[in-house]
Write a structure and sequence with these properties.
150 residues, alpha+beta, 5 strands, elongated
Length: 150
């Protein structure tokens, strides 16, 4: 069992079993960065979608009033890339948390850009308007999902 270094809090460090302990000031700063990043992630989300009135029907295959929107059925152009990137969202955001809010923001921007690109590739094309209308929108959500479609 590793012994405790009495000089730990004087700015010196010790290493035991693959874990490096640094002075109290450095540990406090790292925890503060983590807390700020987690707080930013928890209160803000990114919606990915389209504002076009027919977008919902093209996605699900039916309009909200249950009228058939596409004979070919649902395209799920938003849901498919969201599901495909689900694990990446969790791992990349968890990896970015210790680096602070800016790193979390950059990671969210990269992930959402990739999802939008994939959704645009899957969206049905007649005029190109639906594909061009897919975008991201940052929202203060207060909910747990950092990236969602809507």
């Amino acid at each position: 069992m590793p012994s405790i270094n009495r000089n730990l809090f004087s700015g010196q460090f010790m290493s035991a079993g693959g874990v490096t302990l640094v002075g109290l000031a450095e540990a406090t700063a790292a925890l503060d960065r983590l807390a700020k990043a987690a707080s930013a992630l928890a209160s803000r989300g990114v919606a990915i979608g389209s504002d076009l009135p027919y977008a919902w029907g093209q996605h699900w295959g039916y309009y909200r009033n249950a009228k058939l929107a596409r004979r070919a059925g649902a395209t799920l152009y938003l849901l498919t890339p969201m599901r495909a990137n689900q694990d990446r969202i969790k791992t990349d955001l968890a990896r970015a948390l210790p680096d602070g809010p800016e790193a979390v923001q950059q990671t969210m921007d990269q992930i959402t850009s990739d999802i939008v690109s994939q959704a645009q590739d899957l969206a049905p094309v007649k005029t190109g308007n639906l594909r061009a209308s897919i975008h991201t929108e940052y929202r203060d959500t207060g909910r747990g999902a950092p990236i969602f479609f809507g």
